[in-house]
Amino acid sequence: MKIVPGSKRDWMRMASLPFVGYLFAIALVFPYWRLHTEGHPGGLGSEALNGGLDLFSRGSFICFVGLTIVAVLQLRLDERKQAMWSFIFAIVALVFSDQFTPPLIR
What we know:
- The protein is mostly helical.
- It has one domain (8-99).
- The protein has four helices and no strands.
- The protein has helices at residues 8-15, 17-35, 46-76, 80-99.
- Helix 3 packs antiparallel against helix 4.
- The longest helix is centred in the middle third of the chain and has 31 residues, at 46-76.
């Protein structure tokens, strides 16, 4: 079993892993984080909500850019199926980035 990829195609498959992992982490962490930053007694309040949304939004946008670059490189290597999935995750990252933009910035 190889841990380090041997070909360019394997490297391109592995290059999208951190970005997709971040998107899944946001999807799992955000509901719990939102519950505890509503401003109710024991919550952190709206300042933490806006600050955290800004971080989620920027991270999602970085994932969008990274996944788009990886998808274009995969297309150049004729990995159409992998490129399609990278583009799909890039679109999800762009939607997350838009939805996590704090209300004051919009």
